[in-house]
């Protein structure tokens, strides 16, 4: 490792704030700095604007759009996009724009919930394993290893008959259950180094209980990593959800998700291409904007981890969970 | 080192066995093979259904533990049980592994080489137009669920076929069974191979080029590369002999890991293009309530993860002298 002298460092790479400044000022300064860095990244800004627009499309547009996703227009079957039906209609006369908006609502909620749960579990388990060490560590890491070996796609698909007719929240829990392990490992190894730092030791010797130390001292110190990872997990969860739903193993029939909308459109797509391209395009835009935002956040929050160092070792084993099932 | 590896191996094998058993339990509890006989015309007598299911060790009324014991005993003797239609899981297994191998062989080789080259090229030309274009393209591909890529290719192929007037690009199955003559069969196989290979290659190039680009960027700023240039090597020779060779090393284990995982990971590609490989079996066995087949796929997946992990660890040690010395 080359030792970097401060003089060689470009100004944008300078640490967020010197450690000896008051905590309050450092926090607000850090936030502003992050925001400035983020907004300087054009791709990230584009992603953010795009995602806001997609959210508006999913949640606001149904309020004033003419058609409801359950309504059928018996004067228009398999009609291409027009002023009347923005994305066209399918063989039963349902409006594809309304369906897509409805599907996006579910996919976005599932993605965000899964990302949140998964980051929380990863943080709690990883920090617990790293902080307590010993048998806690060994058994928790064994669970991580086991879940990594378990074929997640297969297990969720196998369990799908069981949650048929119940709520889609079960599906969220399952998705989250199979996606926290790699982050958990990273959190654990970061905890191992933080455990010996003075501020943690000081808290410990003052008699602060372990859970408080973990949630008030250890986890905030790795907040940037957790935020970045959470963002990426949201994208991964949306891809996982739509992929499972595409085969009918995910969101079940009274509910509509982007995956089910695309799946119903696909068989007719050779003759009526809009049935596939519009919902699939929306899905790609969602995932793309989330990826851009995640990348921008990484640059803004963690400028010293140039892609490789932060990502290569971590993703080295993540592929089984990340759901890159081709 | 040897003892460490041995202990890890034993631990991993135990994990695979537990994962396989868990998969069997979940599948046996969740799936209902009796449903396959419902709605047959003429209707099958309940008693004969029960007899058949008992015969195949698939009767949901038999306690799970009893079924599991029977299955585990068979597996220990190398017999994976019977499929829901009465065939041997072993035969189906062997056939499908063959199909997957034929699909993956060319695609993974081209995909890996392509990913390394595109990534290294992007790093050398950092921030120029070509780098921006490849980076953006890989972001785009990675934001797409695989089924979206596969279906899009299929739709394009249909358009091209329509434009040309006859079927140039095939998109269903592995070969045309009606053909005779070595040349024709070979051509037909190539025609069928084109689209699924292209799908897998695009995904792999996008994924691997991200890693390769960041490792290459690290190497480009290194002192030893400057030394190589300073001693008079041409830029090209320095980049190829000293740069790329060093930068590929950390990527190779990752590559191997991903390639091995593709064996069951090519689910969407196989399913959408109608190749009857392992990945397709994963989806089909679940939709046909084929408990023993699901268990076989689950076990194989866990096994593949194990092999991939071990192989990438060994490769890492073999390729990187720093790890070897330790």
Total count of strands of chain A: 0
Along the chain, the helix and strand elements of chain A come as: HHHHHHHHHHHHHHH
CATH architecture of the domain at 96-323 in chain B: Orthogonal Bundle
The share of residues in helices of chain B is over 70%
The total strand number of chain B stands at 0
Q: Look at the structure and name the CATH superfamily of the domain at 70-294 in chain A.
A: MetI-like
Instruction: Describe the main β-sheet of chain B briefly.
Output: none
Could you say what the CATH topology of the domain at 70-294 in chain A is called? MetI-like fold
- Return the CATH class of the domain at 96-323 in chain B: Mainly Alpha
The amount of helix of chain A comes to 55-70%
What's the level 1 CATH class of the domain at 70-294 in chain A? Mainly Alpha
Compute the number of helices of chain A.
15
Instruction: Please state the structural category of chain B.
Output: mainly alpha
What is the average of the pLDDT values of chain B? 85
Tell me the Rg of chain B in angstroms.
24 Å
Transmembrane segments (chain A): 43-65, 108-133, 140-162, 168-187, 274-293
InterPro entries (chain A): BP-dependent_transpt_permease, MetI-like, MetI-like_sf, OppC_N
Biased composition (Polar residues) (chain A): 316-326
Family (chain A): Belongs to the binding-protein-dependent transport system permease family. OppBC subfamily.
Description:
The complex is a heterodimer of chains A (326) and B (326). Chain A is mainly α and 326 residues long. Chain A contains 15 helices and no strands. In chain A, helix 2 packs across helix 13 (274-301). The longest helix of chain A has 37 residues, at 96-132. With 326 residues, chain B is mainly α. Chain B has a domain at 96-323: Orthogonal Bundle (MetI-like fold).
């Amino acid at each position: 490792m080359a030792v970097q002298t401060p003089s060689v460092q470009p100004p944008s790479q300078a640490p967020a704030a010197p450690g000896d400044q008051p905590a309050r000022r450092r926090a607000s300064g850090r936030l502003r700095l992050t925001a400035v860095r983020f907004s300087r990244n054009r791709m990230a800004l584009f992603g953010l604007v795009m995602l806001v627009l997609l959210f508006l499309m999913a949640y606001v547009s149904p309020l004033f759009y003419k058609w409801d996703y359950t309504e059928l227009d018996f004067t228009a079957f398999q009609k291409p996009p027009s002023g009347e039906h923005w994305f066209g209609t399918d063989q039963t006369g349902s409006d594809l724009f309304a369906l897509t908006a409805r599907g996006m609502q579910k996919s976005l909620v599932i993605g965000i919930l899964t990302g949140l749960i998964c980051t929380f579990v990863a943080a709690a388990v990883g920090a617990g394993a790293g902080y307590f060490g010993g048998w806690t560590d060994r058994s928790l890491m064994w669970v991580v290893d086991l879940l990594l070996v378990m074929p997640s796609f297969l297990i969720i698909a196998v369990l799908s008959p069981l949650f048929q007719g119940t709520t889609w929240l079960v599906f969220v829990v399952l998705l989250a259950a199979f996606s926290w392990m790699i982050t958990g490992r990273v959190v654990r190894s970061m905890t191992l180094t933080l455990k010996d730092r003075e501020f943690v030791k000081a808290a410990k010797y003052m008699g602060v209980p372990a859970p408080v130390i973990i949630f008030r001292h250890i986890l905030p110190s790795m907040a940037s990593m957790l935020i970045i990872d959470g963002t990426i997990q949201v994208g991964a969860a949306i891809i996982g959800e739509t992929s499972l739903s595409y085969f009918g193993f995910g969101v079940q029939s009274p509910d509509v998700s982007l995956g089910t909308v695309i799946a119903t459109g696909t068989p007719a797509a050779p003759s009526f291409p809009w049935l596939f391209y519009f919902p699939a395009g929306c899905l790609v835009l969602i995932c793309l904007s989330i990826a851009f935002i995640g990348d921008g956040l990484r640059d803004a929050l963690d400028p010293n981890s140039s892609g490789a160092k932060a990502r290569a070792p971590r993703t080295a084993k993540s592929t089984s969970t990340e759901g890159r099932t081709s | 080192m040897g003892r460490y590896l041995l202990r890890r191996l034993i631990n991993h094998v135990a994990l695979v066995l537990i994962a396989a058993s868990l998969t069997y339990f979940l599948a046996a509890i969740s799936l209902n093979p009796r449903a396959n006989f419902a709605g047959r015309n003429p209707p099958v007598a309940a008693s004969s259904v029960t007899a058949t299911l008992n015969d195949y060790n698939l009767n949901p009324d038999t306690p799970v533990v009893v079924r599991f014991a029977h299955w585990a005993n068979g597996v220990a003797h190398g017999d994976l049980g019977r499929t829901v239609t009465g065939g041997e899981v072993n035969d189906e297994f062997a056939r499908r592994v063959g199909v997957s191998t034929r699909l993956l062989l060319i695609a993974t080789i081209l995909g890996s080489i392509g990913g390394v080259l595109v990534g290294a090229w992007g790093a050398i030309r950092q921030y120029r137009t070509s780098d921006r274009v490849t980076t953006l393209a890989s972001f785009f591909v990675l934001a797409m669920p695989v089924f979206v890529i596969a279906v899009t290719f299929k739709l394009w192929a249909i358009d091209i076929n329509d434009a040309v007037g006859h079927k140039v690009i095939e998109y269903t199955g592995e070969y045309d069974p009606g053909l005779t003559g070595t040349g024709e069969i070979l051509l037909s196989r190539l025609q069928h191979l084109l689209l699924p290979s292209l799908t897998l290659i695009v995904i792999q190039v996008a994924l691997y080029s991200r890693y390769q680009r960041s490792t290459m960027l690290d190497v480009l700023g290194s002192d030893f590369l400057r030394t190589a240039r300073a001693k008079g090597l041409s830029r090209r020779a320095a980049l190829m002999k000293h740069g790329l060779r060093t930068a590929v090393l950390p990527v190779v284990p990752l590559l191997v890991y991903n390639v091995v995982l593709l064996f069951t990971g090519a689910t969407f590609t196989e399913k959408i293009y109608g190749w009857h490989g392992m990945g397709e079996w994963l989806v089909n066995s679940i939709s046909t309530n084929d408990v023993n087949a699901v268990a076989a796929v689950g076990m194989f997946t866990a096994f593949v993860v194990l092999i991939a992990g071990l192989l990438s660890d060994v490769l890492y040690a073999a390729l990187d002298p720093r790890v070897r010395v330790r």
